[in-house]
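Example record

One chain of 495 residues, shown exactly as stored in the release files.
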Amino acid sequence: MRKFLFFVMAAVLFCGCDKEEGGDNLPCPVTEVSVPASSEENPVSPGSSVTIQGQGFTANSEIWLRAITRAADVQARITKGDGKRVSPYYEYNVLASDNLNIVLPWNTVYKVIRQTNNLIQKIESGSIQSSDTKELNRIKSEALVMRGLSLFNLTRLFGMPYTNDKGASLGVPIETSPSDPTHKPSRSTVAQCYEQVVSDMSNALSGLRQETSNGYINYWATQALLSRVYLNMGEYQKAYDAATDVIKNNGGRYQLYSYEEYPNVWGQDFQSESLFELYITLSEPSGGTGGEGAPMVYANEATVDWNNLILSEDFLNLLNEDPKDVRHCLTKESVIENNTGLPAAAMHEKVYLAKFPGKTGDDPKTNNICIIRLSEVYLNAAEAGLKKGTDLEEAQGYLNDIISRRTTDTSQQVSTETFTLDRILKERRKELVGEGEVFYDYLRNGLAIERKGSWHLETLKASNAQKIEATDLRIALPIPQSEIDANPNIQQNPR
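Predicted structure tokens for this chain:
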């Protein structure tokens, strides 16, 4: 299971909630918190034990799994039916009653929000005392970022794209303080959710460390996340400013992988591009699932049996446009000869993505989950710079910085004439495949998602999911039915 060490202190938060009828799956986004007694003689101080545990953030980190198959580059290997891991997302037919795909990400991400609210409240109320006020403020700031990131992920999953209508459609409930478990919030708009996300992350910046903090949220990771948030809002100057702050001012703490480094960084902890990643272990004292994680869905079949995802022909065709692209090293054939578990056309193609091999190269369960990498920040800067229409030469340079480190073919670099949105998005597809952001690249740009190629499953036709417009109501996943049943103030998404 996951244990991530972004903040520590002597308060162990727990999740508890009244179970109403049918309420085993209630999000109960607010609850009580237990903290050790603190006094002047025996103060509770930061730095002694883990507080916000990885179990609550599991689904938050795995949200990218849900997004991955909804685009065009990664697809389901087989149809696994309702309630299974990936095919309902791939086929755009996930149900509100699906415990694994809908209830779990909703409930567990709200657990993180509840935990952060409890922590922030205890710090602000003086229940946690320490002479090291700077350290206490850092912990509070990290909690704010985690709350903002959680809300951002929920909003993108259960709401429509911000850029469709400037966020006028329904998002998710915003919870910023502990309250009674019987509290029944209504849904805020997408715009209100984004406003809260920006507020949490921006207000945290001054209290965060600028030093490299593996496994912890720091200033640079937060600015990087803000560049992602602003880009999805269409706030291009703000996205550009946040991204270039990271690029120009991080003091060499983070650097792009070189062409030579690239094949050897995957599965390794805290490499030079990693701004924030969740540290994965096979066990966790507070309970877990034995290291199960989203990377397992990419596993080649001889290692584990999750092997749910493969690369699409359309993606491989894109990658094959440049034979010198180093990212070819991450595409692998099945380790099973004449693998009948694959679509016939894909049987002998390099359809497995090897970005998540695990720390020892043979166990994806141990692979850390990188929430944001420096390469995305460069690509964010390139897209934001192009769209705002100023600093074009600098923005073009950021795109070429990525290209020059991924291929030895200098003709692939862009000129003033070829520096286009289409070229940026192609590079994002190649660079960020399997990392959960490409789906949102289509949406914020109002582009249709087209599933092309010879080995997409026939089930796409039956589910009418071969082409998905950015306005398709199925983009906003259904609110869990258990939540609808428990809270009359929650409105279901239309289909």
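Notes: Confidence is low (pLDDT under 50) at residues 1-60, 284-291.
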